[in-house]
């Protein structure tokens, strides 16, 4: 596998890193964390073509490969950005293009999307859908509950999964519907790592059918979203590493920088080794995201990322002492966001079980 970025990806990485470094000051980050995203940053990302980098040329973009996703989301993680690019671009936009719908407005930054798929009690099992769809004249109505729908408060349209037939855990019989945001009953709330989500109650809610057999497409976009969040976690780890190294070099005790103490050097070295392993896993997943054994690589990478993220958060906060928990210091936001990575698209234990299951086949 070639680990070198293409010239196009290197240009995208350099440009995005410079833009986010200038755009994401502490005030902007606080605004985005509370509101769900920073509108001026979102517009800037669209103007740079960052949303278009998530889609192939025939879909209206100019990228769409595993390494395109890895580059974009590592830089978003490095900046501690909370903009809902996973929800609007990878999940929502990915499903629209899978079923031939137009995404020009999504790529241009004019439309936010959200995917309402998870339900209370479904945990991380993608096939577990209890929400039902009933034909109503020329349209459909949906009934059920959807949980932790990220970016729903900002979305113009929410894509909702519902069951047409079969038992609750069957892969067949899961359909995908488009629902206008103003037709939904939302209960929004802020997320620990920044951004907004919502619980959604569906009670005869009118919807438009997008696809009758949607499970495979849902699995595809979740695999790509898992790659995206793993790459974002890698960027968060790199940002935390840089803050920690800088702190160890400047914080003095007994007349010398605390970074000269051997015990802290050993702990820092262990953190660096683990981050390099995480980087290798993300690169490996980016190279396998469109291959037949994708799911095994997804499970292995998400499990490793979850374990390394916990180590990086714990070690960095301990080495920073009390300042690590101070809201005004950058580490607090980065550590919270990195911690929450493990709770989306399956935690480390879930993916360990998933890897064992797939390896036994």
Layout: helices, strands, pairs:
Elements: H1 7-23, H2 26-35, H3 39-48, H4 66-78, H5 85-98, H6 104-107, E1 113-116, E2 132-136, E3 139-150, E4 157-163, E5 174-180, E6 185-190, E7 196-211, H7 215-250, E8 252-253, E9 256-257, H8 262-288, H9 294-320, H10 330-341, H11 348-359
Parallel strand pairs: 1-4
Antiparallel strand pairs: 2-3, 3-7, 4-5, 5-7, 6-7, 8-9
Helix pairs in contact: 1-3, 1-4, 4-7, 4-8, 5-7, 7-8, 7-9, 7-10, 8-9, 9-10, 9-11
Task: Describe the fold and architecture.
The chain has helices spanning 7-23, 26-35, 39-48, 66-78, 85-98, 104-107, 215-250, 262-288, 294-320, 330-341, 348-359, and strands at residues 113-116, 132-136, 139-150, 157-163, 174-180, 185-190, 196-211, 252-253, 256-257. The protein has 361 residues and is an alpha+beta fold. The strands form 2 sheets. Strands 1, 2, 3, 4, 5, 6 and 7 form a 7-stranded mixed beta sheet that branches. A two-stranded antiparallel ribbon has the order 8-9. A hairpin with a 2-residue loop joins strand 8 and strand 9. Helix 7 (215-250) runs antiparallel to helix 8 (262-288), helix 7 (215-250) runs parallel beside helix 9 (294-320) and helix 9 runs antiparallel to helix 11. The two termini are 25 Å apart.
Number of strands: 9
How large is the share of residues in beta strands? 15-25%
Task: Write the H/E string, N to C.
Answer: HHHHHHEEEEEEEHEEHHHH
Terminal Cα separation, in Å?
25 Å
Radius of gyration: 21 Å
Low-pLDDT runs: none
Oligomer: single chain
Can you give the helix content as a percent range?
Answer: 40-55%
Overall outline: globular
Q: Main beta sheet, described?
A: 7 strands, mixed
Number of helices: 11
């Amino acid at each position: 596998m070639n680990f070198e970025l293409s010239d196009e990806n290197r240009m995208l990485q350099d440009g995005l890193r410079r833009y986010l470094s200038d755009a994401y000051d502490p005030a902007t980050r606080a605004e985005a964390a509370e509101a769900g995203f920073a509108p001026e940053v979102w517009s800037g990302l669209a103007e740079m073509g960052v949303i278009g980098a998530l889609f192939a040329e025939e879909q209206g973009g100019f990228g769409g490969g595993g390494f395109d996703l890895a580059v974009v989301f590592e830089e978003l993680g490095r900046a501690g950005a909370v903009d809902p690019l996973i929800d609007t671009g990878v999940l929502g936009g990915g499903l629209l293009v899978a079923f031939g719908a137009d995404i020009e407005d999504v790529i241009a930054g004019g439309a936010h999307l959200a995917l309402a798929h998870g339900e209370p009690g479904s945990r991380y099992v993608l096939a577990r859908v209890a929400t039902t769809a009933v034909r109503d004249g020329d349209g459909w109505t949906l009934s059920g509950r959807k949980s932790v729908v990220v970016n729903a408060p900002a979305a113009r349209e929410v894509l909702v999964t519902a069951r047409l037939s079969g038992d609750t855990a069957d892969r067949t019989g899961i359909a995908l519907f488009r629902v206008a945001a103003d037709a939904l009953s939302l209960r929004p709330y802020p997320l620990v790592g920044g951004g907004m989500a919502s619980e959604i109650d569906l009670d005869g809610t009118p919807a438009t059918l997008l696809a009758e057999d949607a499970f495979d497409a849902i699995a595809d976009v979740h695999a790509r979203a898992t790659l995206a969040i793993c790459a974002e976690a890698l960027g968060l780890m790199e940002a935390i590493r840089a803050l920690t190294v800088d702190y160890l070099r400047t914080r003095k005790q007994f007349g010398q920088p605390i970074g000269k103490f051997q015990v802290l050097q050993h702990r820092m070295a262990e953190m660096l080794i683990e981050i390099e392993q995480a980087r290798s896993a993300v690169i490996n997943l980016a190279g396998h995201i469109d291959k037949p054994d994708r799911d095994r690589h997804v499970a292995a990478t998400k499990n490793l990322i979850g374990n390394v993220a916990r180590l990086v958060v714990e070690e960095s906060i301990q080495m920073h002492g009390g300042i690590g928990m101070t809201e005004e210091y950058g580490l607090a936001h980065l550590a919270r966001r990195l911690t929450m990575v493990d709770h989306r698209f399956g935690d480390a234990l879930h993916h360990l079980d998933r890897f064992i299951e797939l390896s036994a086949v």
